[in-house]
Amino acid sequence: EIVMTQSPATLSVSPGERVTLSCRANQSITNNLAWYQQRPGQAPRLLISGASTRAPGVPARFSGSGSGTEFTLTISSLQSEDFGVYFCQQHYLWLSFGGGTKVESK
Amino acid sequence: QEQLVESGGGLVQPGNSLRLSCAASGFTFSSFGMHWVRQAPGKGLEWVAIISYDGRDEYYADSVKGRFTISRDNSKNTLYLQMNSLRPEDTAVYQCAKDDGFGEFLNYFMDVWGKGTTVTVSS
Known about the structure:
Largest sheet of chain B: 7 strands, mixed
Distance between the termini of chain A: 36 Å
Largest sheet of chain A: 7 strands, mixed
Structural class of chain B: mainly beta
Shape of chain A: globular
Mean pLDDT of chain B: 97
Largest interface: A-B, 20 and 21 residues
Radius of gyration of chain A: 13 Å
Helix content of chain B: under 10%
Number of helices of chain A: 0
Radius of gyration of chain B: 14 Å
Low-confidence stretches of chain B: none
Order of helices and strands of chain B: EEEEEEEEEEE
Low-confidence stretches of chain A: none
Helix content of chain A: under 10%
Oligomer: heterodimer
Strand content of chain B: over 45%
Number of strands of chain B: 11
């Protein structure tokens, strides 16, 4: 079983700040990683697939990096609409999700 | 606009059954694999099941295998989840999601999600 661990659990930030979220796998998943955003009361939204490929319509301020076991989602300049919970998901061996990082207003 | 809308959730006693539905619109439903994912209160997302575009292949998480059945009716653009022998630990928001792949090719990640329907298992 592949276990995904996200850190931190909560991040308090202000608009305009650079935000870095981490996701770690307990074994190599090469680049089979997706990132999702879930705003309060809304359905999750695919942001990144293949560890670094933005989904259609996703703003350029979102970027993904990493391979193997360590991955990062970066928001270059946080906008007010970016507050919410971010999940990573591996699809190298079946599917499993990280516990999420909540990005909240400072 | 691609959209998924779940229904059928509610309060059910342990050991009973419930069937969830997911109505799809805005895309060719019959061309894509579909998933059910759940999120228990205060916990992260848990993948539940996947069904191929034509309904021939189904796979389940170990936690629901033998109790839940995923199915689809492509003529109605609808996905289902039949949940039997429900347990308190099945309490969660259940979301359907579209696989990012196409046809027989499954990518095992999701590019369209519904908001979910709440299932509460309690006596």
